[in-house]
């Protein structure tokens, strides 16, 4: 079966007079295929025929043409200038009857003329007739020129004429202030881009004047290169006629600059609106997986120690879409005081990783958990927080021996001697059993030695940079500023100075011990299973030793407002062993209880 091509429309765009012999008609047609797609930059063959009196009449003249469509799908030929004419074109008497032009086209450049269109010839053939009969005298031309001049001065803002002006066989057009016998290009503007997304946008145009010839095609064309023109694959066809139209740009590439122009085509050709440009944004971040369990953790987190610079967790991900993500600050749970920080950035396409910086000061040892949400995926990052290392500063040159003693009444197990003591007490005032004097909440960094040097410089961290005994004569009389009441809490407590498995006792635990003694005095303390000596104390205002051999002061882990609770034992005085509150910069004895 013979395959036919369907032309959605064949438009007679313009017919122009060649005033000198040989007489010819200029003919233009837009060629579209069966899918309404322009046939552009392609060789075609055409057969043109002149019919007389009726659109169904037999041709009185026929000729053949081989031509090529332009980038707009327009074919240009001259009737009267073709090959294999069936008769003489110049012999046609245009003054007798009506004439029609039939065009037949084979877009495949053969002789299968499957696209057929017929249009009536109006003014131009009659101008040919006037030229042929030599009746166009100088007076007529003067009349036409005068009309053109008047038309041109009537309204300079519009294309075409302000009124239809036909003189004999001539139609006049005013284009950009000039009078001519062919239509003008349309007047069109380009809409600014709107609804801009990473892969789409909206634009369009407005045709305010058709230039005196019907607009047969309109739309927009866009590219990443300036001044795009048809035919590009990135163009739209938004119908015909004048007025506003809206066009959608699709399949755009994120983070690209695009240039857009509206276009309109009529019998005079194609014109473009002013170019507009816009940039597509990157999409929002999207991930397939966020793998906290596979994170690479750098640096060590220590309870009570501010996180050092460079402590990071590198969390891998898959399925990145190249999108942007915002900054993130995820506060820690379980172990508080830390934050995982992510700086805003752009995902990779596919697999990649995100670097979280850990900041802050962990309140205790244990596991700090961070809930991370990026690109629609959430995971929990776990970081271990270790206890600060015990200081190896031993004021008597040896580690405190660990010997357990059990109170049969309370059932609790204690160390049998004070921290820093060389032996369990032989007497209430046994100097070899006094041990060291700690400021509340500090570790064994040397400050506990009874002869350590003093300083008035308070510490802003849980581990001072030196082992000096810190004087604190001003309220709240604490060696640390600001105060930290979470120190010494449990075996994993920050700065716990006791050996592994031991800790500072609570107020309740010390009260229970006192309740088991035969008397609440220094004598009762010594006769108890713990044999607590009266090692004295160190003053928080000047660092001087006081009450040695007379009073015993033993820290608990319990705090009371800005103070800390301690057990006070006065020598040989009944009723003088009880819990009291002391300033945290004081130097008191420590006896460790087994956890």
What would you note in describing this structure?
The longest helix has 17 residues, at 138-154. Helix content is 7%, strand content 35%. The radius of gyration is 50 Å and the shape is rod-shaped. Mean pLDDT is 86; it is low at 1-22, 129-145, 147-158 and 162-169. The chain has 595 residues and is mainly beta. Strands 18, 19, 21, 23, 24 and 26 form a six-stranded antiparallel sheet that branches. It contains four helices and 41 strands. Strand 27 (366-374) and strand 28 (377-386) form a beta hairpin.
Short key terms for the protein model shown above:
four-stranded antiparallel β-sheet, 41 strands, 4 helices, mainly beta, disordered N terminus
Brief overview:
With 595 residues, this protein is mostly beta strands.
Could you give the topology of this structure?
Layout: E1 25-30, E2 43-52, E3 59-68, E4 74-79, E5 99-106, E6 115-121, H1 123-133, H2 138-154, E7 166-167, E8 170-171, E9 173-175, E10 178-180, E11 187-190, E12 201-209, E13 217-223, E14 243-249, E15 257-266, E16 269-272, E17 276-279, E18 289-290, E19 296-298, E20 301-302, E21 312-321, E22 324-325, E23 328-331, E24 338-342, E25 345-346, E26 349-360, E27 366-374, E28 377-386, E29 404-406, E30 413-415, E31 438-439, E32 454-455, E33 469-470, E34 502-503, H3 507-515, H4 522-527, E35 537-538, E36 545-546, E37 551-560, E38 563-570, E39 577-582, E40 587-588, E41 593-594
Parallel strand pairs: 20-28, 32-33
Antiparallel strand pairs: 1-4, 2-3, 2-5, 5-6, 7-8, 9-10, 11-12, 12-14, 13-15, 15-16, 15-17, 18-21, 19-21, 21-26, 22-25, 23-24, 24-26, 27-28, 29-30, 31-40, 34-41, 35-36, 37-38, 38-39
């Amino acid at each position: 079966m013979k395959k036919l091509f369907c032309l959605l429309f064949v438009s007679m765009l313009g017919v122009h007079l060649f005033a000198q012999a040989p007489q010819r008609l200029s003919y233009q047609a837009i060629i579209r295929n069966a899918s309404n797609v322009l046939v552009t930059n392609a060789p075609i063959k055409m057969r043109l025929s002149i019919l007389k009196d009726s659109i169904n009449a037999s041709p009185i003249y026929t000729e053949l043409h081989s031509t090529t469509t332009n980038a707009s799908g327009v074919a240009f030929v001259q009737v009267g200038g073709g090959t294999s004419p069936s008769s003489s074109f110049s012999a046609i008497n245009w003054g007798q009857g009506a004439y029609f032009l039939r065009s037949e086209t084979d877009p495949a450049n053969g002789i299968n003329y499957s696209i057929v269109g017929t249009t009536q010839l109006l003014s131009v053939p009659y101008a040919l007739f006037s030229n042929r009969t030599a009746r166009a005298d100088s007076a007529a031309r003067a009349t036409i020129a005068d009309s053109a001049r008047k038309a041109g001065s009537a309204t300079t803002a519009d294309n075409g004429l302000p009124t239809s002006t036909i003189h004999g066989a001539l139609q006049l057009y005013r284009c950009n202030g000039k009078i001519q016998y062919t239509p003008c290009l349309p007047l069109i503007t380009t809409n600014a881009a709107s609804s801009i997304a990473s892969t789409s946008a909206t634009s369009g145009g407005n045709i305010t004047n058709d230039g005196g010839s019907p607009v047969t095609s309109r739309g927009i064309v866009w590219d990443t290169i300036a001044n795009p023109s048809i035919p590009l694959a990135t163009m739209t066809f938004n119908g015909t006629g004048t007025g506003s139209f809206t066009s959608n740009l699709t399949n755009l590439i994120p983070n690209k600059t695009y240039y857009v122009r509206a276009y309109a085509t009529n019998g005079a050709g194609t014109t473009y609106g002013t170019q507009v440009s816009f940039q597509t944004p990157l999409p929002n971040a999207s991930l397939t997986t966020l793998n906290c369990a596979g994170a690479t953790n750098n640096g060590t987190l220590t309870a009570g120690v501010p996180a050092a610079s460079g402590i990071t967790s590198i969390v891998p991900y898959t399925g990145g879409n190249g999108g942007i993500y915002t900054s993130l600050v995820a506060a820690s749970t379980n172990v508080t005081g830390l934050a995982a920080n992510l700086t805003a950035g752009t995902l990779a396409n596919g697999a990649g990783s995100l670097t979280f910086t850990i900041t802050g000061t962990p309140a205790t040892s244990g596991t700090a958990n961070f809930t991370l949400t990026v690109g629609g995926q959430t995971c929990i990052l776990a970081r271990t927080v270790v206890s600060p290392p015990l200081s190896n500063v031993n004021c008597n040159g040896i580690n405190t021996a660990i010997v357990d003693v059990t109170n049969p009444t309370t059932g609790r197990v204690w160390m049998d001697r004070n921290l820093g003591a060389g032996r369990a007490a032989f007497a209430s005032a046994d100097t070899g059993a006094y041990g060291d004097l700690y400021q509340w909440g500090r570790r064994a960094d040397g400050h506990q030695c009874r002869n350590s040097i003093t300083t008035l410089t308070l510490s802003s961290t849980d581990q001072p940079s030196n082992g000096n005994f810190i004087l604190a004569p001003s309220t709240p009389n604490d060696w640390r500023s600001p105060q930290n009441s979470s120190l010494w809490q449990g075996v994993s407590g920050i700065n716990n100075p006791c050996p592994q498995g031991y800790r500072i006792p609570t107020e309740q635990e010390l009260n229970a011990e006192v309740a088991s003694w035969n008397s609440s005095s220094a004598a009762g303390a010594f006769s108890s299973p713990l044999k607590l000596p009266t090692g004295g104390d160190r003053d928080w205002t000047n660092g001087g030793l006081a009450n040695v051999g007379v009073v015993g002061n033993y820290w608990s882990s319990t705090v009371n407002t800005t103070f800390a609770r301690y057990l006070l034992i006065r020598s040989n005085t009944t009723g003088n062993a009880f819990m009291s509150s002391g300033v945290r910069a004081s130097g008191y004895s420590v006896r460790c209880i087994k956890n």
